[in-house]
Structures are given as structure tokens and as C-alpha cells.
Amino acid sequence: MLQSKHRIAGWIRKHNPHICCLQETHLRIKDLHRLKVKGWKQIFQANGQEKKAGVEILIPDKIDFQKRTIKRDPEGHFIILKGRIHQEDANIYAPNIGAPKYIKKILEDFKKDMDSNTIIVRDFNTPLSKMDRSSKQNINKDIVALNNILGEMGFTDIYKALHPKEAKYTFFSNAHGTFSKIDHMKGHKTSLNISKKLKSYQAFSQITRD
Fold first, then answer.
1. Do the annotations mark residue 166 as ligand-binding?
2. pTM for the complete prediction?
3. Is residue 42 part of a domain?
């Protein structure tokens, strides 16, 4: 855990992103502020009682961020942070079992908290299209239902919007010998001017999956 924290802190210092979202921190409620990076004092966490799940949003001091509301899952599966920087970040983590149904329920429950400024980021633990699998396996009905509600809410895949013909993977299964993309970044179709954040997101996805 200590080595991982140093690695993440080193990446943040090197790439200097506008916002950093972490999943699977495996911290408990009492483990607040375990990750410390100079110039990054704004840290928002959702942790459970046990060392599993856990999500975190970090915002640098250089960003004039004013928190409006924050909603945390008591088991550390997701955090929704809204603030005054012309955007709202929704950082959602789903467990490995039944991930599409779980995320669909979160979207339905918090639909009123999301608008054209919302960004949904990181580990969905599931591919969302045939292109997200090197095997090109068809997606199941639960994933179709999840994609439908994302579409109804106006969300689209930011990477695919900018690179429609390029497949990128973030996970390798040793058991099946296949690559897949289970980390996703969803933005509203009317608000896709975030190329700098996308670049930071791609780089961080790579180091967290290495």
C-alpha cells in the first residue's frame, strides 16, 4: 500500500492533472487523508468499514473549488461531488459482481443530481461495447440496459467521441488471454471540451493497470 501511494503521488506531481479520481483505495473510514501530495489539500473520500472498495477525488489547491454537496456510499462504492468550478464530477465505482445493474441503479437514484456539466469517471468493471473487448464478444442485456439509460441521460463515451475508430484497453485477463476496457469516462454530449482531462485520465488508467 505504501509503494502504491508513493507511485500515485509521483504520477500526480509529474502530470499535474486538474482533478484526480481514484478507485479501489482499500481504505477504511478511519483512514482519512492517507494519501498526501503537496499542493493537493482538497481530498474527498468515501470509505467503508473494511479494507475494500473505496473512492477518492483530489483537487489541487490551484483550482478555486467550492464544495456544494457531497454524497458518499457508506460501503465506499461511489462518491458524488458537486462544486463551483463550472462542472460536476461523479466518481462511480462498481463491485465486480452485477456491475451493470449496480451502476444503472445508481444512475436512476441520482438522476436529479446529474446534468450537462456532469462527468462520470473510471472503473465500471465491465466492457460497455464489442469494441471494448479484444475478443469482440457481444454485450449482454444488462449492459444494453445500462447503455440505454446513459444514452437517455445524454451521456457518451468521451474517448470514443474523440477517437471513434481506435480501441484502447485497460485490463488484461490472464485466465482468458483477452484485453478489455473496463475503465470509462462519460461526459454529456453538449459538454465535450475536456481534452486535457482526457489526456490525464488515459495516462492514469495506464499506470493503475500496469
1. no
2. 0.75
3. yes
